[in-house]
Amino acid sequence: MKVFPEDYMYSREHLWVRVDGDLATIGITDYAQEKLGEVLSIELPEIDTEVERDESFGSLESAKAVIELIAPVGGQVVNVNDDLLDDVGIINSDPHDTGWLIVIEMSDIDEIDDLLDTRGYNDFILESEED
What we know:
Elements: E1 9-10, E2 15-20, E3 23-28, H1 30-36, E4 39-43, E5 50-51, E6 56-62, E7 66-70, E8 75-80, H2 83-86, H3 90-93, E9 102-106, H4 118-130
Antiparallel strand pairs: 1-2, 2-3, 3-9, 4-6, 5-8, 6-7, 8-9
């Protein structure tokens, strides 16, 4: 079983959410980056973009696939990780810290209640690998 940060929440689309008040920092999980392989490019929204929960907010191209990034929570983008413009490989080397993608000021903090905690995310991974 992989070890994921305990203080994060997780989506079924393999994104993590770190909550600080009404701010949600979002990134791709280590599990997802491992499955996708080397990240080649990423498209992220601009600051002040409104993002809807369960809607695409960008895309990621890896050696194995191109995926849509599905927002685990909705709100306004208040920060984007510009470091990824210079070195998108940070997503592979440090997905749960410096490889974060965006920060959203959540429009409805209760949306985090629909996310998985660490144990729930680990169980979700195990179930999906059994299929």
